[in-house]
């Protein structure tokens, strides 16, 4: 049985999508944090100037938010890439 080789184009596109998603999610979540708390996001969670609750809250918001963003964007991008790839193969007669 032949082993499926990873699609190099998807790996490159997926990597770029991941970078852009992480950057955008960080900006959006930071903006939402400021709107919700009235304070800038903590830069150094280990700083004594940042309360334990604020540090943990920010970590939870960022962790969950980044994970959800990655899942949604990666699944959407993969579906669109697969659809484009199948249309391309049909048009080439494969």
From TrEMBL:
It comes from the Bacteria. Pfam families: DUF4235 (PF14019). InterPro entries: DUF4235. This is DUF4235 domain-containing protein. The lineage of its organism: Bacteria, Bacillati, Actinomycetota, Actinomycetes, Streptosporangiales.
């Amino acid at each position: 049985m032949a082993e499926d080789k990873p699609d190099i184009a998807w790996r490159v596109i997926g990597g770029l999508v991941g970078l852009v998603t992480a950057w955008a999610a960080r900006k959006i979540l930071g903006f939402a944090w400021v709107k919700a708390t009235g304070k800038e996001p903590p830069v150094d969670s280990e700083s004594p100037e940042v309360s334990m609750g604020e540090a943990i809250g920010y970590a939870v918001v960022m962790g969950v938010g980044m994970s959800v963003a990655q899942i949604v964007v990666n699944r959407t991008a993969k579906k669109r890439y697969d659809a484009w790839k199948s249309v391309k193969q049909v048009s080439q007669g494969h």
